[in-house]
Amino acid sequence: LYGTNNVNNCSYYCHQASGVGLSSVTGSGTATVTLDDVAECDVLFLIGANPSSNHPRLMKNLVELRRRGGTVIVINPLKETGLVRFKVPSDLRSMLKASEIASLYVQPHIGGDIALLTGVIKALLERDSIDRAFVAQHADDWDALAEHVRAMSWDDIIRNAGVERAMINQIVDVYARSKKTIFCWAMGMTHHVHGVQNVQMIANLAIARGMIGKPGCGLLPLRGHSNVQGVGSMGVTPKLKQAIFDGLESSFGLTLPTSPGMDTLECMHRAEEGKVRCAICLGGNLYGSNPDSAFAGKALRAIDTVVYLSTTLNTGHVAGRGRETIILPVLARDEEPQKTTQESMFN
Questions:
Q1: Ramachandran class of 58: left when φ > 0, alpha when ψ lies in -120 to 50, beta otherwise
Q2: What is the rounded distance in angstroms from the CA atom of residue 201 to the CA atom of residue 198?
Q3: Closest Cα to residue 149, out of 135, 170, 133?
Q4: pLDDT of 102 over the 80 cut
Q5: pLDDT digits over 147-187, tens only?
Q6: Global pTM value
Q7: How far are the Cα atoms of 35, 38, 231, 276 from residue 216, in angstroms, in the given order?
């Protein structure tokens, strides 16, 4: 209604690459699985993610997967202690001895993920382990991808991936036998210049064995905030889907800008240059989410007015103040303005 499309959400600093990459493959930026599917899979790839710190709810699912004979393949340059063994607080056996998580722990070069995944697809092609019926029916331009992968030399793949061919063969041994595989990933895949291509290559690997579109299989980006997917899907983005754009114009009688809106980082750069007069922040911590705190603080201090709508105080309210700052307290979604009983929350 204010006539600006400089509107962003927190995914521009996390899973925006996942949304773009998945949309280019499946037509939607959402995951293709639910947690119920995790209970059915026999192999789970965990790529560039550390759920032991950031998604602890998933850890019980991984322990249960291992207990029923499944395989967890961790791909992460860093050896995360919690992905080797983990104590699930709600599980007495796990708490006593700690549960083994990774069946196979693969440590590629930082940025070597595409080369590694290319190597896995190349080995699948060489073993004739591609689901040919699936790719023929559901995949566009598969032959072009296969030709590109076949043309890659093993020497180049191994050098760029930082993973020996024997380890790649171990991955393929497991994946080629799997009936139901789920691929999970997080910031270790998206926080790259080629983050979108990383996600697309994960999807290519899933397509190669027909691991999309059936129970117990699919693509699962490990997102953070409880409704980060929804906020992007309903239009809190600098570029609206055409149907939403047309609906806003017709419903409110507006003429909206058609020029590209600024993403989060571009907004921060323009703020640093003194070209942003007002910023309205609904939740989150824009100061704290920027990796360069000195830059973030300088940019936010250069804004005439910064308005925060927040459920709790955070560092951004101190170090991310504008020339004038307004902090408005708001209720969390499950918070009530008066004393209440636990039972009343369910009425």
A1: alpha
A2: 5
A3: 135
A4: yes
A5: 999 999 999 999 999 999 999 999 999 999 999 999 999 98
A6: 0.84
A7: 9, 6, 26, 47
Listed residue (295, 291, 322) closest to 308, CA to CA: 322
Residues 6+ apart with CB under 8 A from 290: 13, 268, 296
Please state, as a whole number, how many other Cβ atoms lie within 10 Å of the Cβ of residue 288.
Answer: 14
User: Number of C-alpha atoms within 13 angstroms, CB side, residue 344?
Assistant: 7
Rounded CA separation 312/329 (Å) = 7
Calpha distance 301→296 (Å, rounded): 9
Rounded to whole angstroms, the maximal C-alpha distance in the chain is 67
Strand residues in 259-310 grouped as ranges (E): 278-282, 305-310
Dihedral sign of CA atoms 80, 86, 87, 91 in order: positive
| Sign of CA pseudo-dihedral 166, 167, 171, 173 | positive
At 51-79, the pLDDT tens digits run 999 888 899 999 999 999 999 999 999 99
Instruction: Please state, as a whole number, how many other Cβ atoms lie within 10 Å of the Cβ of residue 243.
Output: 9
Place of tokens 């009688």: 253
**C-alpha–C-alpha distance, residues 30 and 296, integer Å:** 30
What pairs with residue 47 in β-bridges? 75, 185
What H or E segment, with its residue span, contains residue 184? strand 181-185
Instruction: Spell out the domains of the chain, with CATH numbers in brackets.
Output: 31-221 (3.40.228.10), 234-329 (3.40.50.740)
Percent of the chain, pLDDT > 90? Answer: 70
CA atoms within 13 A on the CB side of 165: 8
